[in-house]
Amino acid sequence: MINIGLLGLGTVGSGVVEILKNRKDELKNITGQEIKVKKVLVKNINKERQVKLEKEALTDDFEQVLSDEEISIVVEVTGDLELSYKYITESLKSGKHVVTANKAVVSKYFEELSSLAAEKNLAFIYEASVGGGIPVLKPLREQLSLNEISEVQGILNGTCNYILTRMVNEGKGYDEILKIAQELGYAEADPTADVEGYDTQRKLRILATLSLQGKITEEDILLDGISSITSLDIDHIKNMDATVKLIAEASAYEDGFTAVVQPTIVKNSNYFANVNMAFNSVAFKGDNVGELKFYGPGAGKLPTANAVLSDVLDIVLDIYRKGNPLGEKVLKNYNEKIRGNYYLRISNANEEIVHSLRAIANNVLSLGSQPAILTDEIELSKLMEIITSFNIEKKDYFLARIIS
Ligand code: HSE
């Protein structure tokens, strides 16, 4: 019998219980053992729940999980940052393998938790933290042994992609679709993390650090979210025979890297243009394998729980990669070198702003109080300087890079 200590019984936790129950016999055939959720840490033991568990399995005391010597794997799906850090460190220190879906904790404590697990010869794996149900981190870790990875790129947030897809395809309003994304269980408890891009930034931090084999933190990544997009932007973008996605990208650059999360206008013929709704995609380039692309459901209960259980299965079968997967390269941040062609729209613009915009435009899409332009190739840092000089709030402009 393999006993799991499950921390959290929200959307993902319930999915884990459900899949384990439905696949009980198959899992037993493959592993030769029953995989059982022995204890579940919840905030309120008396709350009515849809998932059926033995009453005595529920506890509100983490010590009950930690001190249970029969529990060999802790599955952390609480969604809480500092508590989960405590749970994960204590679990590893007491000899338990850890699987987590929590990108915030992996991102913040990546180096520390990876080396603690390696030191203890235990698994610390987090497939569900990036790309929801897509198996991407395991193949990436595998390819790292054989390749130098030069670039990783992706649509990493299901909520943003769902909102953008429905705004473009159906002309629906931003707030209305965000609400539906929350109801469907795609969004974070606080959806600001989704729409302002923090969730994507965390996922890119994880992907970039693994891919480029050196520490790239959240602060190293330039960030812009999607919350200021309007129906006027959508109209302009559709007229360009294009769509818009929140794209995360990290690339090797000289003795360092560039890393950015930003709204990106992609021509309809581009691969990413066809990644729609709550689907995600991750592409990375290795010097031997070339470009690999991964595509699948980026959020939601069962896909995410499925990714969590893939990690559990790898531990049970003892086929997870041993050792610390993080590299020790010291990488310089070259984000000031990021350049491209951009779309910029400003609301409530005065004449002076319109004049400045005209000076950097190679195409003017609209004028008046809501001017929108396309720029020539320009450094992002220079464009940001110009925008900052307008002294306008973030909610009053929308900036997107344009790629073909
Ligand atoms: N809120 C996240 C998303 C969940 O929308 O992608 C999956 O990480």
Report on this structure:
The chain is globular, with a radius of gyration of 22 Å. The N and C termini lie far apart (53 Å). The protein has helices spanning 11-22, 24-31, 62-66, 81-93, 103-108, 110-119, 137-144, 158-170, 174-183, 192-195, 198-212, 231-239, 301-316, 351-360, 380-389; strands at 2-7, 35-41, 58-59, 71-76, 97-100, 124-125, 149-155, 222-223, 242-253, 256-267, 279-286, 290-297, 332-333, 339-346, 361-366, 372-375, 378-379, 397-403. By secondary structure, the protein is α/β, with parallel strands linked by helices. The longest helix is centred in the last third of the chain and has 16 residues, at 301-316. It folds into 3 domains: 2-125, NAD(P)-binding Rossmann-like Domain (Rossmann fold, 3-Layer(aba) Sandwich), CATH 3.40.50; 137-305 and 328-333, Dihydrodipicolinate Reductase, domain 2 (2-Layer Sandwich); 338-403, Alpha-Beta Plaits, CATH 3.30.70. The strands form 2 sheets. Strands 7, 8, 9, 10, 11, 12, 13, 14, 15, 16, 17 and 18 form a 12-stranded mixed sheet that branches. It has a 6-stranded parallel sheet with strand order 3-2-1-4-5-6, sandwiched between helices. Helix 8 packs across helix 9. 37% of the residues lie in helices and 26% in strands. The protein binds L-homoserine.
How large, in whole angstroms, is the Cα Rg?
22 Å
Q: Which architecture of the largest domain would the CATH scheme give at its second level?
A: 2-Layer Sandwich
Structural class, please? alpha/beta
CATH superfamily of the largest domain: Dihydrodipicolinate Reductase, domain 2
What is the beta-strand fraction? 25-35%
What oligomeric state do the depicted chains represent?
single chain
Which ions, cofactors or small ligands are bound in this entry?
A: L-homoserine
Average residue-wise pLDDT: 96
| Shape by Cα distribution | globular
CATH class of the largest domain: Alpha Beta
Proportion of residues in helical segments: 25-40%
Number of domains: 3
What fold name stands as the CATH topology of the largest domain?
Dihydrodipicolinate Reductase, domain 2
Note poorly predicted spans: none
Total strand segments:
18
First and last CA, distance:
53 Å
The major β-sheet equals:
12 strands, mixed
- Number of DSSP helical runs: 15
